Amino acid sequence: MRIVGLTGGIASGKSTVSNLFKASSIPVVDADVIARNVLKKGNGGWKRVVSAFGEEILLPSQEVDRPKLGQIVFSSDSKRELLNKLMAPYISTGIFWEILKQWAKGAKVIVVDIPLLFEAKMDKWTKPIVVVWVSQETQLKRLMQRDGLSQEDAGNRAIAQMSLDLKRSKADVVIDNNGDLHNLDQQFDKVLSEIRRPLTWTEFWRSRQGAFSVLGLVTSGLFVCKHFSYLTLSNCL
Fold this sequence. Notes:
Blueprint: E1 2-7, H1 14-23, E2 28-30, H2 31-38, H3 44-53, H4 66-74, H5 77-104, E3 109-113, E4 129-133, H6 136-147, H7 151-159, H8 164-170, E5 173-176, H9 181-195, H10 201-206, H11 208-236
Parallel strand pairs: 1-3, 1-4, 2-3, 4-5
């Protein structure tokens, strides 16, 4: 099974690319969706975050006020690191189970959409790595327009993540999303062709089909050995 790593930065257009993969019938494991589930009222992640940040981050419904929590962690490196530390075990476990589900369904190629792919050191489990890149100017402009943030707040959110230039240097495939949707579609078609290429032998053995092939070979081998041993024993008697 080929596990493609998809990452980018805030307001880079990564979610748009993720949706293009879904529209192309490529299964996507979305770390943001998993994180939202982890923070749902009563879940383990919710309990740890509320314990650490206090009940003032809760809405009247007792769900986490995500914008308020965002304001807190994006204004403080230590609090952001604390939140990541609290959430990481739950998110990693959620990603693992979602990948396992896709494996059980027989998926040969899946995309793992993780904003903090490099920061969480999950890049070593994915190949190829696709980075959606935009210039800093474009990133700040889009972030301010999308979320109605001041330039200072937008800048704080952008610098809270690994720089897109650094992520680009670590990528196997880079999607330059400074242009319009037509340009993005053209680049995406090339990326889609790349990740749909035939699996390598290593990727094949990791797939469900490959695992069953190994099981079949082992079972057949045991049967042949048992049958051969029986014939040998019979000839000796």
